[in-house]
Amino acid sequence: TLMMQNHLAPVPELYVSADSAQKLKREAADLVSWDLTPRQTCDLELLMNGGFNPLKGFLGQEDYESVVETMRLADGTLWPMPITLDVSEDFAAKVEPGQDIALRDAEGVILAILSIGDKYIPNKAREALMVFGADDVAHPAVNYLHHVAGPVYLGGAITGIQQPVHYDFRARRDTPNELRAYFRKLGWRKIVAFQTRNPLHRAHQELTFRAAKEAQANLLIHPVVGMTKPGDVDHFTRVRCYEAVLDKYPAATTHMSLLNLAMRMAGPREAVWHGLIRKNHGCTHFIVGRDHAGPGKNSQGVDFYGPYDAQELFKAHEAEIGIEMVDFKHMVYVQEKAQYYPANEVPEGDTILDISGTELRRRLREGLEIPEWFSFPEVVKELRRTSPPRSQQGFTVFFTGLSGSGKSTIANAIMVKLMEQGGRPVTLLDGDVVRKHLSSELGFSKEHRDINIRRIGYVASEITKNGGIAICAPIAPYTATRRAVREMIESFGAFIEVHVATSLEECERRDRKGLYKLAREGKIKEFTGISDPYEAPTAAELVVDTEGMDVDYCAQQVLLKLESMGLIAA
Ligand code: PPS
């Protein structure tokens, strides 16, 4: 067929020649410029290198509305995903259609020029409903649309100056034309692409191998390393895992290339989009599985899409996409046969073994066995390096309570006890230490207290990320700020909020620093509990009351809590 003959000819790119690029770059320095977000940088890369062919730039209003409503550009070409440049209101006010602007990456390097053709305000609720299936922020892309993306879209043609620079896994990244050239060189004609955002285990290796064999084709493992679903295994770890799995395929049949795509988790529409992108990368076949690019459950606890919606939508547009769908054979391990079978071919009466994603994460977290039938030892080793058991991960203990409630004393006791156990780095971010080293210019207004707490949160999140234990002991009087700190930290490790609930009367009675007296006399303004608010936590992991309890007992309670959460070895 025509497709078979032409599918490895180059796709159009949006780059200018190297000479013009130099000149253009100098001229572009004078233009108004937009600093691209990480997602926009991913989109721009695929626009420029032909991964999003036939798009010539970010969508203008007519194309955008047509894509949202009909999955097609205004001229009828199939294109399921709005590729748009969202900007702030302030920036939008500075530019007009007809104007050229420079697009810069995070370091300020000019990657491209956008000739603004259109400036418009999208109907985001409509976009959410039509593209993602529901205007529900439980969907990561809908959340992004409403809470991260700017309110105004700019559309227009792109003139590419240079590719975004990647310093990681350079040899594993290929543009569509580089991949096409590679396939031509090796004489590959039929290529099955496998899209993934997860580590590959034995079941995936079996299914991809089978898919390639059945299609009598070569195999391209084409993992996404741009942006995937929040909470996924980071791409550094995944690529090391993929490299280990690559050795398990027959030599010279399989290739791996990294795709700097920003996924939207749009299920059916995403599958069609993925197909078009793989077609652009020279592939002839594409594996679509159960719940392809699924975002998980909506705010009602129900899956956003049916398990085979993606396969159906893909099938309906297969000819137009120009790439053949290989439906995912769900592979399961059959104990009696000691090998993998497609789920629908399991011999009657035999036992199926399976480990779900949730179960795998639990085993990693608790340092439990992961059997050889499930994954390759090399892959498990990489995953264990990245997700050590909880008792080796970083965490933050965050004390909050009134001045003189005993926070610092308990925090100190905890620190010393943890150091006595040894083996883990511990940092105490006590109120006084912080106010001396991090926040010496701040006072006690709401604004200053918030800045102070956020700084503590940031430092604690870095410590937690790097496997240490951070112990914080500020007053932290505001619920919203404490919540913000919790969010900062929980993406890296556990956050244990401990309310030291000593009453105001008791703190004032003790008045260890003589501050309450001064506050009563009006000599200290905005004093917490006297002339400034303290919002007591309602959902702290632990509440300790120092009245009638000695410090040692309180510290013991905290340690027991940490033990029960698996954070320190019993
Ligand atoms: S906050 O609200 O979390 O930013 O406060 P923090 O950084 O923990 O600082 C509290 C310590 O500062 C002393 N101090 C005051 N506290 C409360 N209100 C006012 N106006 C104030 N002025 C000075 C006080 O000694 C607090 O120490 P602790 O250890 O809590 O007693």
Verbal overview:
It is built from 22 helices and 19 strands. With 570 residues, the chain is an alpha/beta fold. The protein folds into three domains: 2-160, Sulfate adenylyltransferase; 170-332, HUPs (Rossmann fold, 3-Layer(aba) Sandwich), CATH 3.40.50; 390-564, Rossmann fold (3-Layer(aba) Sandwich), CATH 3.40.50.300. The strands form four sheets. Strands 1, 2, 3, 4, 5 and 6 form a six-stranded mixed β-sheet that branches. It has a five-stranded parallel β-sheet with strand order 9-8-7-10-11, sandwiched between helices. The protein is globular. The chain binds 3'-phosphate-adenosine-5'-phosphate sulfate. 3'-phosphate-adenosine-5'-phosphate sulfate is lined by residues 403-404, 408, 431, 434-435, 444, 449, 452-453, 474-477, 513, 515, 524, 526-528, 532. 3'-phosphate-adenosine-5'-phosphate sulfate binds at residues 403-404, 408, 431, 434-435, 444, 449, 452-453, 474-477, 513, 515, 524, 526-528, 532.
Helix content: 25-40%
DSSP summary: helix tally: 22
Shape: globular
Can you tell me the residue ranges where pLDDT is under 50 for at least 5 consecutive residues? 1-5
Mean model confidence by pLDDT: 95
Domain count: 3
Sketch the major β-sheet.
6 strands, mixed
According to CATH, the homologous superfamily of the largest domain is P-loop containing nucleotide triphosphate hydrolases
Tell me the fraction of residues in β-strands, as a range. 15-25%
Rg computed from alpha carbons, rounded to a whole number of angstroms: 28 Å
Name of the top-level CATH class of the largest domain: Alpha Beta
Total E-strand runs: 19
CATH topology of the largest domain: Rossmann fold
User: What ligands can be seen in this structure?
Assistant: 3'-phosphate-adenosine-5'-phosphate sulfate
Decide which structural class fits the backbone: alpha/beta
N→C terminal distance: 67 Å
CATH architecture of the largest domain: 3-Layer(aba) Sandwich
